[in-house]
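Page 37, continued from 36.
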């Protein structure tokens, strides 16, 4: 989320107002926005300003899904203020979205050092570890998240995922059930149901797995992972034609 109060006043030197045209141009630059019709990638990044301004500009680019363009602002902010929690957290977030997980982990470690009681820091550390397939460490991070905030829905969901990877399937299923009890209706519920379907399939509870996956597909009808998992469960049930249909949907 972008907070406009993070910005300084938009005005010329000596507290004088800009012309309307210049004021619009300066405001767009501060927000890291571009006028309509500007070719993508044609904007020069201005890595100047206070740490708060740099972070806010980076967050504005994140809001436009311009992750690679946002990254230099957060890098500059961390160099400018080594103890800025917001700079390190947003740097980790951007790096994670760019699949640079080892660097993201290092950034989140710095954020944790500055704000050790922030559950979001530990959750994002866990996600970086999960993508690096360091599942035991990821589990520890998610459990630390939940110790700080027992209602952290996404941490319950990802805890269920890594427990499945660790073949602790009964515990994974418990985590998924708990997550679903916290939020049974939104898009997050679709992700939880996929985790449950995967865990139930590993336990050999195939019909329950199918039920969970079908509920997930009501929420995410085109989700590749859900269709692939459904195909695998159907194969385990020797329903080969149905399994092939599910795999076809996953590829479409």
């Amino acid at each position: 989320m972008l907070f406009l109060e993070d910005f300084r006043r938009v005005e010329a030197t000596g507290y004088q107002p800009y012309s309307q045209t210049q004021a619009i141009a300066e405001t767009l630059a501060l927000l890291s926005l571009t006028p309509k019709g500007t070719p993508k990638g044609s904007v020069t990044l201005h890595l100047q300003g206070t740490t708060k301004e740099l972070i806010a500009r980076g967050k504005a680019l994140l809001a436009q899904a311009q992750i690679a363009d946002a990254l230099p602002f957060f890098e500059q902010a961390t160099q400018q203020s080594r103890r800025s929690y917001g700079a390190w957290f947003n740097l980790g977030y951007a790096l994670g979205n760019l699949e640079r997980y080892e660097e993201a982990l290092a950034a989140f470690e710095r954020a944790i050092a500055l704000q050790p009681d922030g559950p979001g820091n530990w959750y994002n550390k866990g996600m970086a570890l999960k993508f690096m397939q360091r599942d035991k460490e990821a589990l520890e991070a998610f459990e630390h998240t939940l110790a700080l905030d027992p209602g952290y829905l996404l941490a319950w969901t990802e805890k269920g995922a890594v427990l499945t990877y660790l073949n602790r399937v009964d515990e994974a299923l418990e985590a998924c059930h708990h997550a679903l009890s916290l939020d049974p209706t939104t898009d997050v519920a679709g992700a939880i149901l996929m985790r449950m379907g995967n865990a139930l399939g590993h336990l050999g509870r195939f019909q329950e797995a199918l039920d969970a996956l079908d509920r997930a597909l009501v929420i995410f009808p085109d989700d590749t992972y859900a269709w692939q998992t459904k195909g695998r469960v159907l194969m385990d049930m020797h329903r080969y034609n149905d399994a092939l249909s599910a795999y076809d949907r996953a590829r479409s």
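The longest helix spans residues 187-202. Flag for discussion at group meeting. Confidence is low (pLDDT under 50) at residues 1-7.
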